[in-house]
Amino acid sequence: MGMPWLASRSFGHGVHPPEHKEETRDLPIRSFPFASELVVPLLQHLGAPAIPEVREGQRVARGEILARPDGFMSVAVHAPVSGTVRSIRPAPSITGRMLPAIYLETRPGDTQEVIPGVACSLESATPEDVRNAIQAAGIVGLGGAAFPTHAKLRIPEGTKVDTLILNGAECEPYLTTDHRVMLEQAPDLFLGIRYLLRAIEASRAILAVEKNKADASQHLRRHKPDDLALELVELEVKYPQGAEKLLIRSLLGREVPSGGLPSAVGALVVNVATAAEIGRLLPHGRGIIERVVTLGGPGVERKGNYRIPIGTPLRFLLEQVGVSGDVDEVFLGGPMMGVAASSLEIPLTKGISGVIVYAREQGDSEESRVYPCIRCGQCLAACPMYLDPATLMRLSRHGDYSTMVDRYHLMDCFECGCCAYVCPSHIPLVQHFRIAKAGIRRGLSA
Amino acid sequence: MSGPSSPILAIRTSPHLVRGSRVDWIMLQVLIALSPALVFAACAFGAAAMLVIGVSVIACLAMEALWSGSSGRTLRDGSALVTAVLYALTLPPGLPLWMVAVGGVVSIWLGKAIFGGLGCNPFNPALVGRAFLQAAFPSAMTNWLPSFSVGRFSSVPESTLALPFLRPVYDARTSATPLAAWKFDAETTDSMDLLLGLTSGSLGETSSALLLLGGLYLIARNVMSWRVPVSIGISVALVSGLLRWADPQSYASPVFMLFSGGLMLGSLFMATDLVGSPMTSRGCWLYGALIGVLVVSIRAFGGMPEGVMYAILLANATTPLIDQWIRPRPFGAPGGARA
Question: Domain spanning B23-324 has what CATH number?
Answer without folding.
Answer: 1.10.3430
